[in-house]
Amino acid sequence: MNASDFSVSDMPTGARALAAFAGALLVSCLLFLAPARAMAGSATVNVEGVPGGVVVNTHEVVAKVVGIDKVKRTAKLQDETGRTFEAKAGPAAANFDQVAVGDMVRLTLTDELVVYLDEEGGTSGEVASSVVATSPKGEQPGGIISGTRQVVGTVTAIDLAKHEATLEFKDGTKRTFPVRKDVDLKQRKVGEKVVFRITETIAVSVEKP
């Protein structure tokens, strides 16, 4: 199956939690940057004839601090297009008191989606994990957050004519996905498990003028 066909927006209820999972981490730990992402890059890797693949997307946003409230731990930021928005620092942002008007906030987001057929039956099902690393108190504000979420779909139907497969997820939602033409669906069968694993890493740094 083609990993490029499994974007987060296309996924059913259980899988859509992947995006919210990493977003919640960012809000609670560092700064939440809301504007459209800039400087996007992407790459897709798959092996001919092998179901699944890997999609990696990288985005970078740079914004200037134009206002700050030390008590509420919020900062007003302005991105490169001139739009302004508010960011809030969570308890883990130990160096928020060092952030000042005029500083530049740089956020780099990398998300990796891996899709594969669990032919060995070794998947552990739906799992989630996270890692947070922030700069020590007194050092340059910034940090890294990495979150991983995994969901598993079961093949419930295969359409050879349309070259599609229907998957059912744990929450009962079903979704039909197109399959790459180089994958021989005659070799696949109902009941097989397809694993979706997304890892989102967010790096935030504050640069003094």
Unreliable segments (pLDDT under 50, ≥5 consecutive)? 1-37
User: What count of domains describes the coordinates?
Assistant: 1
What is the number of beta strands? Answer: 10
Q: Main sheet, how many strands, which sense, barrel?
A: 10 strands, antiparallel
Integer-rounded radius of gyration: 20 Å
Strand content: over 45%
| Secondary-structure element series | HEEEEEEEEEE
Give the % helix: under 10%
Mean pLDDT across residues: 75
Backbone shape: elongated
Structural class: mainly beta
Distance between the termini: 48 Å
Number of helices: 1
Question: Would you mind describing this structure in some detail?
Answer:
The protein has 209 residues and is mostly beta strands. Helices cover 8% and strands 49% of the residues. It is built from one helix and ten strands; from the N terminus they run H-E-E-E-E-E-E-E-E-E-E. The protein has one helix at residues 13-29, and strands spanning 38-45, 52-69, 74-79, 84-88, 104-117, 127-134, 142-159, 164-168, 174-178, 193-207. A hairpin with a 5-residue loop joins strand 8 and strand 9 (174-178). The longest helix has 17 residues, at 13-29. It is elongated, with a radius of gyration of 20 Å. Mean pLDDT is 75; it is low at 1-37.
